[in-house]
Prior knowledge:
With about 300 residues, the protein is α/β, with parallel strands linked by helices. It folds into two domains: about 1-175, NAD(P)-binding Rossmann-like Domain (Rossmann fold, 3-Layer(aba) Sandwich); about 180-305, Orthogonal Bundle (N-(1-d-carboxylethyl)-l-norvaline Dehydrogenase, domain 2). Helix content is about 45%, strand content about 20%. Strands 5-2-1-6-7-8-11-12 form an eight-stranded mixed β-sheet, sandwiched between helices. Strands 4-3-10-9 form a four-stranded mixed β-sheet, with helices on one face. The longest helix is centred in the middle third of the chain and has 22 residues, at about 175-195. It is globular, with a radius of gyration of 19 Å. The termini are far apart.
Amino acid sequence: MKFLVVGVGAVGSVYLAFLSRAGHQAVGLLKKGRALNSICVEGIWGDFVQEVRAVDSLEMLNYEPDVVILTVKSYDTEQALKSIEPVISKGSLLMVAQNGYGNYEKAVELFGRGRVLLARVIFGAKLIDYGHVRVTVCGDDVVIGDPAGVVEDSFLKELAGMFSRAGIPSRHERDVYKYLWDKILYNCALNPLGALFETTYGRLAENPYTKSLMDAVIQEAFEVIKAHEIPTFWNSPEEYRKHFYERLIPPTKDHYPSMLEDLKRGRTEIDALNGALVELGRQKSLNLHVNQTIVSLIKAKELFNLP
């Protein structure tokens, strides 16, 4: 199978390196003027250096990919989608493997149902340097599916198996959109506070003040979920919080959020996380005071940290 990886940051570097090592035709699409010949991988999935192929324009791509893997930051989604439209229009499937709310929705609006796959990615990867990535933690398999129910399950199972054999644990689930919201809740509660206080997920849960803030983030998120009738695995914020503190935080308690590094560079994905909750709340006349305050704090610090 042929792949195009759009956005060779932390997650994109993992996909490009592992797929290339497994012998698949995989090409990374870089920002204009950049070049990349190899990727050094280290961490929980092994240490190796892999030669890769990367281009900085679609004109340099000499084949039509079967699957385009989108891993850019959420604030680059619209530009990235426009740039790959010629490839998707020729028949390639797009797999959205990003954080937050709105990326999958924008892709479906542009390309239509049945052209866009969704991947819930919950492994942690840190870009040490350009072409050097460390896999730090894995909370669960990558979950792959088509929320629209158009793409055949057999193909999705084959694709997930291909990723697993390449070294990225993956599985197919029809309820992939529920898995996405599971991660949105997780990220909204942890990422901005971990970035603001420069601390780990475990310490956030141990501190009674940050724990109360996370509880409030989750409470407000469920107001949005109920108002918009968004399908999730959880019937109440209390049910989710039990899962959150007992099942999700323990295996990632020593993890720092990627938003911490993003914040130091002056730009984060807050608009696709807590900011998206605030906007969805506004559409239903809900005031999400805690989430709005967290968004304001992150945006203030972004401005302070701009070069």
